[in-house]
Amino acid sequence: xxxxxxxxSFSSCKFEKxxxxxxxxxxxxxxxxxxKNCDFSLADLGGSSFIRVEFTDCxxxxxxxxxxxxxxxxxxxxxxxxxxFNNDKFTGTSFSSCDLQGVVLDxxxxxxxxxxxxxxxxxxxxxxxxxxxxxxxxxxxxxxLNGPELKGAIVNSFQAADLARILxxxxxxxxxxxxTKTCFPSFSKNTCSSFPLVRFRNHNSVxxxxxxSRK
Length: 215
Fold this sequence. Notes:
Blueprint: E1 2-4, E2 7-16, E3 29-36, E4 49-56, E5 69-76, E6 89-96, E7 109-116, E8 154-155, H1 157-167, E9 179-180, H2 189-193, E10 198-199, E11 205-207, E12 210-212
Parallel strand pairs: 2-3, 3-4, 4-5, 5-6, 6-7, 8-12
Antiparallel strand pairs: 1-2, 9-10, 11-12
């Protein structure tokens, strides 16, 4: 490890059972790093970059990871309730079996990001396009967003029904086999009437641009 300008830089290291709680470590650079059983609760890592980094069994509750870059990063079995990922860039990043309740992922750029068996209840995705993001194995109850962010996201049929309620969509046929009309409260009647009818068939379709299927 060493200093680069006013920021810390680490490469080819393994941190095990380290505590970074409530410590500022802004604009740091981490390359080829393994964090195992480390505690980052309430730590400030804003503006940092992570390249080929693995977080396993780490605590990230309330951690500030905003305005950072994540390239080929794995979060495995981590506890990240209410962590902040605002304005981040993700490339080839995976979250596996993580508790991310209330996580904030606003205004992020996602390229090949994966969520597997994660708790994303009450997560925020304002102004973060979710096209191609597969949520089918994760919990996304009460997520927060404007609506357009969901275009192209992949969800299962049960999640689609939940998202319909969030977006103010009226599903008239509970069997999800008929055409349904959409109505977004924030739009005028003229705008609402211009939305296409949505067809649910064989549990695979596009739901207002939201792909959903049974896995």
